[in-house]
Amino acid sequence: MGREPKGVRQERAARAAPPDRAPSLPSAMKALRKVRPEAGAELAEVPVPTPGPGEVLVEVEAASICGTDLHIYNWDPWAAGRIHGLPMTFGHEVAGRVAAVGPEVHHLGPGRFVSAEGHLFCGFCPPCRSGRAHICENLRILGVDLDGGFAEYLLIPERNAWEVDRRIPPEVASIHDPFGNAVHTAFSGEGASEIVGATVVVLGCGPIGLFAVGVARAAGARQVIAVEPNEFRQGLAKQMGADSVIDPTKEDPVATVSAATEGHGAEVVLEMSGVPSVIDQGTRMLAPGGRMSLLGLPPGPVSLDLTGAVPDMAADHHPACHRHGRRRPGDHPSLPAGALRRGLRGDDIRKIGKGDPASVTVERRTARWHEPAWTT
Fold it and tell me: One digit per residue, pLDDT tens: the chain, 376 residues?
């Protein structure tokens, strides 16, 4: 048998005896818990969980507040109908250091810096076995269906712990989950190739909408137009690379986009607000053959003018509507590697966290990521 390559031997040795081996763990930890079905939360002391097979225990260094967390904290109708197991520790946007690992953990060791991916899939249902784990029939959401990351320690499967370069600050690593939502929404049609040279409109510039502005700019959009009523976020959208920002309280977004595109409309519309009237406007500003991807969570049913603004809506496994024309089933090429390599910097991403946390957009990607905005 041939000798193992030197690099592989070194990596194996590093995993077997990591230099930053965790000290003995405490028996208890502080956690922000949703205890009762009412507004509010409590800081409580709970046992530190022990990792089982395939699990890692993460010592939390940073946690971000998502709109989902605000729903849970305020205990609005969505939370009342969705959360079933109280008491529970909420929070799902987390980064930290691996403190301990259970049996059958093969790729991570104590001391590794990771970002948590909050969608726990079973791996056995038909969607999982066909490469669509994001719509797992048994999907569980961290901080919604099981204890989350607003605590000193977090227990997750190894496959949900994504190792991150230590040069990335914890507060940036903790928002990889919502940033990923922006990336997948922007690339949900034909991938990055659909963005290159296109007019891209981002409707709603909460944190994920701002991410999407930067993604579209980095991916080579000809012009990026942001629509946002909040003055502070308008400024952030410009910093993230928007060529123009439309204030919908002062001008008609549909007419303004039409004028900016010489009457052709936008090839790509990314809807991040979840406001029914804004979703309708998005369909009306699409160019023929354009693509609209929906990430925002509407508060209820949404009415669309299918005979006027959307004469032909093609449905596939992406939450997108296509105006004028259908795509072939299975016509979803892989994303080009390194599409964002020349794009966003940590400083750009860090700017986004300075807004009003009370108006953070709840991220939604597909029918089963968090809660479905649109069924597929």
Answer: 445 455 545 555 444 444 334 568 999 999 999 999 999 999 999 999 999 999 999 999 999 998 889 999 999 988 999 999 899 999 999 999 999 999 999 999 999 999 999 999 999 999 999 999 988 999 999 999 999 999 999 999 999 999 999 999 999 999 998 899 999 999 987 778 899 999 999 999 999 999 999 999 999 999 999 999 999 999 999 999 999 999 999 999 999 999 999 999 999 999 999 899 999 999 999 999 899 999 987 877 888 887 766 644 443 333 344 433 333 333 333 333 333 333 444 444 444 443 333 332 323 333 333 333 332 2
Which CATH code for domain 6-174? 3.90.180.10
Q: Tell me the whole-structure pTM to 2 decimals.
A: 0.73
Q: In angstroms, rounded to a whole number, what is the distance separating the alpha carbons of residues 267 and 218?
A: 17
Residue range 180-359 forms a domain whose CATH class is alpha beta
Question: Choosing from 50, 71, 106, 375, which is the catalytic residue?
Answer: 71
Token pair listed for 44: 């409580």
* CATH 3.40.50.720-classified regions of the chain: 180-359
Residues of the chain with CATH 3.90.180.10: 6-174
Nearest Cα to 176, choosing from 84, 56, 251, 66? 66
What are the counts of helices (DSSP H) followed by strands (DSSP E) for the chain?
11, 16
68 annotated active-site: yes
Is 317 known to be catalytic? no
* Sequence-distant (≥ 6) Cβ neighbours of residue 148 within 8 angstroms: 88, 89, 90, 91, 92, 94, 118, 142, 154
Instruction: Select which of 68, 256, 283, 361 is catalytic.
Output: 68
